[in-house]
Amino acid sequence: MTYDLAVVGLGYIGLPLAQRACAVGLSVVGCDTSGRVVAGLNAGRSHVDDVSDADVSAMREAGFLATRDPAVLADSATVVVCVPTGLTPAGDPDLESLRAAVRAVAARLRPGTLVVVESTSHPGTTEEVVRPLLEEGSGLRVGDDFHLAYSPERIDPGNPSFTMRNTPRVVSGCTPLCAKYAVAFYSKLVETVVVARGTREAEMAKLLENTYRYVNIALVDEVALFCDRMGIDIWDVLHCAATKPFGFAAFSPGAGVGGHCIPVDPRYLAVKAESEGFSFRILSAAREVLGRMPGHVVERAAGLLEEQGRSLNGARVLLLGVTYKPDIADTRESPAYAVAARLRARGADVAYHDPYVSEFTVGTAPLRRREDLAGALADADLTVLLQDHSCYDSALLARTRCPVLDTRGRTAGARVTLL
Ligand SMILES: NC(=O)c1ccc[n+]([C@@H]2O[C@H](COP(=O)([O-])OP(=O)(O)OC[C@H]3O[C@@H](n4cnc5c(N)ncnc54)[C@H](O)[C@@H]3O)[C@@H](O)[C@H]2O)c1
User: Fold this and answer.
1) Of 41, 172, 261, 281, whose Cβ has the fewest other Cβ atoms within 10 Å?
2) DSSP state of 347
3) Residue whose CA is at the smallest distance from ligand 1 atom 43
4) Residues in contact with 92: Cβ distance below 8 Å, sequence separation at least 6, in sequence order
5) pLDDT 10s digits, 313-337
6) Mean pLDDT confidence for 1-18
7) Which CATH number fits domain 235-418: 3.40.50.12500, 3.40.50.1220, 1.10.10.60, 3.40.50.720?
8) Which helix (H) or strand (E) holds 184?
9) Three-class DSSP category at 58
10) Does 3.40.1280.10 match the CATH number of domain 3-197?
């Protein structure tokens, strides 16, 4: 085999995997359907926050090649599939990229290959969706001819403390031998490998991890809505509760949840549960609460302007931070879209400042970008801090002329109101 590893899908998950594999000395090829991604990587440019251009150059020097040509999959001892598993426009699980990627692997599968799926999906996906496609497309049998495994990625973009290397990795196989091959592969990349009983347990563990965040964020959001009604300071409530040294994990309220995982993965669980005749009521309740948060932010913003004798109609509103997490460039599923759309619908003149995001289009119209923070603050009638990037200097925000709605509970000052 020419390559130790082929990574299919070179995004937020696949590229760091390819980088780590290069770093430990494996020969790596990456296959992606996007010409832009492939050309950028081969030119030494990264499109992923956690991987720098210098990292990509180092990968290239180590022999890494990105390509759109799936022929390389026939020359790789291990193939790891890291393609998106998002939602359709109707909000249902979309496994089309996964199916397409697996078909491409199946058509070139050689005996002895280890195939691993890292894409998040509902329990049963590896056995019921991936395995038949691979077996029918190749004429080979899992366990007898090739190995099939599932290993969910746990990457936390922008987290400097936990990287792929020191985050324990859950690994599972369709057979005990498949799991053994997968453990041998991941042991080269990470410090701790945790072996799940089977692929369904590993798939479910991933959904549990993300659903845990989803439900707890919804809980704290609903507590915030109730505290708003009661005139209770939610941030002080959280400060007090978080001092409990056991049995309480702190989550923060905000404009909603974003990213490619937290708003998406519980849908996979809910839809699978529905197909099994099981009603996951906590998921629908959490979804309903989270869906209310952008509207709540806009109502609070309107209230601050009303205190000044103004309305949102015609007001210049500045949004600070439009990504879904602090200090990263990822805007996927960011609640900033829903907040901006609602503000516009109320007639506000909305602009944004975000050092990580050069373009932010809401609906079909791009939002006006402000680069000079002090100037943008000076021009605004109202500022809404949506994402607490570390560049947002509390002292500067506290001195603004206009009211500031801080949805992250980060700042203080005479003009600052917390969500
Ligand atoms: N982003 C995260 O923080 C995160 C964390 C854990 C798990 N995941 C899961 O990992 C998977 C990948 O997510 P991501 O964030 O890396 O996605 P991404 O959109 O950043 O990257 C996916 C890449 O796959 C490529 N692609 C799409 N279809 C393809 C195909 N058929 N063949 C080859 N390439 C194809 C795309 O062009 C893109 O470059 C998803 O299932 C996601 O749920 C993501």
Assistant:
1) 281
2) T
3) 120
4) 267, 271
5) 999 999 999 999 999 898 988 999 9
6) 95
7) 3.40.50.720
8) helix 176-186
9) helix
10) no
